[in-house]
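In response to reviewer comment 3 from the previous cycle, which asked for concrete evidence that the modeling workflow produces usable outputs, we include below a single protein chain processed end to end. The sequence was submitted unchanged, and the resulting structure tokens are shown without manual editing.
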Amino acid sequence: MSDISVKKDYLNKIKLIKKYNKFYYDKSNPAISDDEYDKIKRDLITIEKKYPHLISSESPSFQVGFKPSKNFKKIKHLVPMLSLSNAFVEEDLKNFEKKIFNFLSLNENSHMEYCVEPKIDGISASLTYKKGILITGLSRGDGLEGEDITENLKTIKDIPKEIKSKYFPNEIDIRGEVFISKTDFKKMSEKFANPRNAASGSLRQKNAQETKKIPLKFIAYTFGHVINQNIKTQSEFLSNLKIWGFKVSEHNKTIKGIENLVLHHKKFEEKRYSLNYDVDGLVYKVNKIDLQKRLGFVANAPRWAVAHKFSANSSISKVINIDIQVGRTGALTPVAKIEPVNIGGVMVSNATLHNEDEINRKDIRIGDTVKIERAGDVIPHVVLVDKTKRSSDSKKYIFPERCPSCDSKTVKDFNESTKRYDAVRRCLNENFNCEKIAIECLKHFVSKEALNIDGFGKKIVEKFWKLKLIKLPHDIFNLDYQKIGNLEGWGKLSASNLKYSIEKSKKISLDKFIYALGIRHIGQENAKLLSQHLKSVENFYKLTKKNNFEVLLNIDGIGETQIRSIRAFFSNKINVTVLEKLKNNMHIFNSVSFKKDGILKNKTFMFTGKLKEISRAEAKSLVEQNSGKIISNVNNKLNYLIIGENPTNKKVKKAKELNIKILSQEEWIKMLDKTS
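The workflow returned the following structure tokens.
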């Protein structure tokens, strides 16, 4: 059979599986028997093994679980179910703790206590109890809202339907993991690819009686929304869970210090395979609840917790060629094209080489036999070269000095902090002047974290660029939908749906808008900081007109590196044109929300000097949380100047001259306490 006919058969099987999935999960009306379905899927997997070069990203073999069923209504989580940041090596853990210490203004020699819990590879669920009665059970969903799978969750024996404990909170969301043991999965492995898929598929049954037939288990580990609870530590909460009738991991424990966490991780990894359920790492949480509250969240993850993943899956392959990818910020990333190899159930044909220095350091050549690692969702990368297998015809790779996309000169930036040149080489063309950079900028602009335009994925961006439908971000709001409707694979309905999604995206918060612009060094958190300081899109636009970027130095978290990037962005004429066009096409609103009637309402504050046991960032956050306002200069608009150790004399003097109230840190804290 030729590759053409095999590919046709392969794509047809993918199409059939998608069709039958829709009948089974969305319509709850199977169009074929389970045996017939399984045969199609087995045949598809056989083709993938025999012809790995044909593997499509649309393949069901890449899917973990299934898309949320339309049979379940969506309910908003009272407290978002956020993801965890990941750590893979000891250095990652040290950086995690360093950020905690900096935020809390702790001495670097402090010993933080962590609650350590196994990270079970299952499906997250949230259980809402009111007066001890299980009211609602939700899936994680997108973190903000989940599926109402209450009746399915009620079939799990580990989940109490009623709790009569005297000390159980009046209202609480208990969160945990739904999973299937390895022993139970062996009995049903013919139906599902792995235990996680089995748990996911079972929870999405429309008929709860079908879910009841599956031996699902539940381990509780945290809480979301809660009323009337008084606990001091995470470990205390886990103990309470046991008293209330929930199952918790028998491997939970408290540990002090990063070194001890690393030792425990090593020991636990060695015995992970002896457990009767899948575990892909350990979760470390700051044990004290009051510290968790102080630390809060960054982007979509808590500052006070991290997932320490186990060693990556690896395999051996051969480097066929090395290509260069040009990223959104102009970075040139070398990618090894390798002989397709299965790593952790995923066929891998590309592996990042990171940068020019990495290629030279590892002496990676075309034709080399290499070790490839894939850690969770991290991009596969080349770990090392097996030089004993190096052939005489292996080719040393010469890194290009010109951009492969626009032929512009490439450079390595000089880092003023390290006094060294960066490892990454970058194209000198900025933003939309280089085709590859422009395409990546557009992909970023429409991405989930930015405008979040449903149905406008990376492939659509590339296709529309090729057809000259879009070149710059504002072109997205002026598309010819009649022309799009006539394109292959499109129609009037799909074009209409795209139009609806684009129209919906026009209304966007200031922080998301700033992030969407793709300014180098301005990620989601920095975009939020800028939004909080500038307050409005008009003030953002004024930066270029007044050329007054130094005002941004007053923002904690925004340094000279970020300001240089913002200045460079605004100095580009195309960017300025794009901004003006976007302003006319979009409704950009202030994303900062404060308590309208907070205890510091209509009061302005400024801090000077080093504060005790609290960082400047946290202090300012406390003011804003209570409806107060932070200003950057001592003037008539300032109500209170808060002084720490070694305050700026000039600021104190001016405050006295203007009869501004001067408070010590202790007096300021008393003010908060009095009004709390």
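Residues 313-396 form a domain with the OB fold (Dihydrolipoamide Acetyltransferase, E2P) fold (CATH 2.40.50.140). We consider this sufficient to address the reviewer's concern, and the full set will be provided in the supplementary archive.
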